[in-house]
Fold this sequence. Notes:
The protein is mainly alpha-helical. Helix content is 57%, strand content 8%.
Amino acid sequence: MIKFLLDYSSGVPVYRQIIDQIRFGIASGQLKLGEQLPTVRALAVELKVNLNTVSKAYKELEIKNILETQQGSGTFINTTEQVVLKKEREDKLKEISLHFSSVAFSYGFNLDEIICELKNIKQTSNT
Length: 127
């Protein structure tokens, strides 16, 4: 199961952030095919958002055949292969990198400092 994190200052609607995190959770292997997601109510309470926000995200993912809701059982990652396209992954990385670098550069960090810190983060996360 993934830990959902919302960024209210990003300008991205909350339901879209939920969608993106589920899709990339699947792509990264954090969410497995057939895995059950929290109920709409449980996720809304956890994230402190309106039920309709979570419901909208789940419904959009159902339309794209990424999620499957079974009445009385819950919502699951669809067992058919629905992978995030390579281009979509690359576009998301560019978006993240652009946001990250603009913040880092605005604080006066140079590229070497940023790369060094990213390597440190990678090393500590591997231990």
